[in-house]
Amino acid sequence: MSKQISAIRGMNDLYALPSQAFSTILSQAEQVLAQYGYQQVRLPIVEKTELFSRSIGEVTDIVEKEMYTFADRNGDSLSLRPEGTAGCVRAMIENGLLHNQVQKVYYSGPMFRHERPQKGRYRQFHQLGVEVFGLNGPDIDIELILLSARLWDALGIDNLELQINSLGSQQARADYREQLVSYLSQFSDQLDEDSQRRLQTNPLRILDSKNPAMAEIVAGAPKLIDALDVESKHHFEQVCAALDCLGIDYVVNPNLVRGLDYYNRTVFEWVTTELGAQGTVCAGGRYDGLVEQIGGKATPAVGFAMGIERLMALLIDQQKISETPSADIYIVLAGDSTLQPGLVMAEMLRDALPQYKVVMNSGGGSFKSQFKKADKSGAAYALILGEDEVTQQVVTIKSLRTEAEQQTVAWDQLITFFNQPSTDTK
Question: Are 367 and 335 in contact (CB under 8 A)?
Fold first, then answer.
């Protein structure tokens, strides 16, 4: 016997309830995004490595350690996408979609990072990303926060906290960076290995350290929000005022940062304490410098990405989703002569009742075994089609979830029966 081939570590199969949760999240998200006028784009999974080294940064862990990178046959260095924003920006520029235009788009799909798998963090994971190009006011920042809040309501997810901050202008950040490096350098011998490495390359990321030993040092650092330029401060005040007006609770987190220079002004995250260390389920913000950095003309941009697996875990842990029946109506067949009439009946029901899942028994079996399968399917009704029923052109209807008595219904009255308000197979 050949050796069994297993899945790659951190690349998981989805089935049963997790698969249903995955579909529910995407379905609800697409409905909410359509309400706000966003259009879907589909982007490649593989891009040139240069796209990510230029956008994410060559000195980041993602580019240095985590990307799945390989040489194409023609010698090009290609990578499986570790995130979606860079590819979306590349597509907007390449297809000429940013010239004097506003674009409000979303995408979803798998991303890839070679890191240690744990709950909420996998090597193949899925994100839904939302991006807006061509608008620089606080109104669109607010809209993205409202849109995400509406999605949590639609999914029924509880206990998410909105954290917000402002990174200011690029000049304000540059000035603040000097202050931060000067402060942190006083503690260089107390910084952990990651922070020592980031001190000269990406010092703002030190503020986001999860190391408890760094907490006191981080708490004493100067606050970026205190160094905001006048315009950025006004922008942030408008965001906060709108959230107050709309009743959206939030916490200003001065340590909520982004390590890359193209981020500016509003940043936000939705976080939970129910997933351990992987508490961020959605992260967003303004990145007005990225389009120019990738090769386009300077364009204001803002967006967010949400982790599908983390939302799936919340839906399942909070019991906000349960397995749906595989059938609403199950057709039980008795006798060889019932196969063709059963097929005709099943197709007739699917044509006339597209909202219902109609399953016809396959593979034969006794009445008892067929009813076991009908019950396991979760169907509300079994339609019993025997040779006598075929002769008389009737079908026996048995309720599988109530004590209602069996009924015999003529074939030409079957659709009427299931369209009655009192008939609830859902």
Answer: no
Looking up tokens 């963090």 gives 121
- Residue 423: Cβ-neighbour burial (10 angstroms; 0-12, 13-18, 19+): middle
CB distance 291 to 89 below 8 Å: yes
Q: How far apart are CA 65 and CA 56, in angstroms?
A: 13
Q: For residue range 38-65, what is the model confidence (pLDDT) as tens digits?
A: 999 999 999 999 998 887 765 566 666 7
User: For the stretch 276-313, what's the b/e string if a residue is b when 16 or more beta carbons lie within 10 angstroms of its beta carbon?
Assistant: eebbbbbbbbbbbbbbebbebeebbbbbbbbbbbbbbb
Q: Average pLDDT in the 129-149 region?
A: 96
Find, among 326, 278, 358, the residue nearest to 19 by Cα.
Answer: 326
User: How confident is the model over 164-199, as pLDDT tens digits?
Assistant: 999 998 888 888 888 888 888 888 788 887 788 787
Distances (CA, A) of 363 to 250, 327, 339, 350, 369: 57, 17, 11, 20, 11
Q: How large is the average pLDDT for residues 299-308?
A: 95
